[in-house]
Design goal:
Elements (H helix, E strand, L loop, with lengths): L2 H4 L1 E7 L5 E7 L8 E5 L9 H12 L3 E5 L16 H17 L5 E6 L1 H9 L6 E7 L13 H10 L1 E6 L2 E6 H7 L4 H6 L5 E6 L7 H10 L4 E6 L9 H19 L1
Parallel strand pairs: 3-4, 3-5, 5-6, 6-9, 9-10
Antiparallel strand pairs: 1-2, 2-4, 7-8
Helix pairs in contact: 2-9, 3-4
């Protein structure tokens, strides 16, 4: 039987809204040095290449990696239209609890884009997390509204509307917009008491690098800021993705082992 297949396990757990969420646990061949929980971006899934490449790099370095789908995305249950950032934060907390209950630690946590905002907001509620990384994350949760600016008026007027993001159409409820305004990501970053790495590409047109600069400035020590000339928002180029993965692995190797 394929050893790589044996090292990958599908995990189901209950998310913050009560829906059943889908996750994939990658186990290294030997005893894990630690574990890393991975949270994907707004309209992505755990199977985005950014997540799968990072999971492989982490596992190759001896860490267990746990990537999961937020409520209403990928293979997870729930209604995406009812999505809120508060709900994502609760999903992160439940996922981290699941990882700890499986016996993996010490634990790191990584979030991409709005998933990065979610892990920063969840950190206060997940004391078992010892190190945090965000990739292409916003310093202001409301920044995500620019992705559906053309539909925001209809969304707020009608309570529910179709929005187009990245060429794909989704339904959202007005509660998503209202909820964004209740979160202060920079305040959460300023209260972190654990090592924090922010990673961002200068050519990211979805979340500008100034957002990462704000996050880094707000954080206390120990912290690090790694910026790349290229990589975009998704680090789709293999060379850029590999460099980013190497830097993330090096950070967790330093802060979790």
């Amino acid at each position: 039987m394929n050893a790589e297949r044996l090292a990958i396990e599908e995990i189901s757990f209950v998310g913050g809204s009560g829906a059943t969420l889908s996750g994939v646990l990658h186990r290294p061949p030997e005893r894990a040095l630690g574990s890393v929980l991975m949270a994907h971006c707004f309209t992505c899934s755990k199977d985005l290449h950014t997540m799968t490449r990072l999971a492989k790099a982490l596992t190759d370095a001896g860490f267990a990696a746990f990537r999961f789908d937020f409520t209403g995305r990928g293979e997870s249950g729930g209604d995406f239209a009812k999505k809120t950032l508060s709900g994502n934060v609760s999903d992160v907390v439940r996922a981290a609890t699941t990882l700890v209950e499986m016996g993996f630690g010490p634990c790191g946590i990584l979030g991409h884009s709005l998933g990065g905002a979610a892990v920063l907001l969840a950190a206060e509620r997940v004391k078992t997390v010892r190190s945090i990384v965000t990739v292409g994350a916003p310093s202001d949760a409301a920044h995500v509204k620019h992705l559906f600016a053309d539909s925001e008026e209809a969304l707020l007027r009608d309570g529910r509307a179709e929005v187009t993001i990245g060429g794909r159409t989704f339904e959202l409820e007005a509660g998503f917009v209202h909820d964004l305004e209740t979160h202060d990501v920079l305040a959460a970053v300023s209260e972190l008491d654990r090592p924090y790495l922010t990673v961002h590409a200068e050519d990211d047109t979805t979340v500008p690098i100034t957002e990462a600069e704000n996050l880094h400035a707000a954080a206390g020590e120990p912290k690090r800021f790694i910026r790349y000339a290229e990589g975009g928002h998704l680090f789709g180029n293999r060379t850029h993705a590999n460099q980013m993965a190497d830097d993330v692995v090096a950070w967790f190797s330093e802060t979790l082992t």
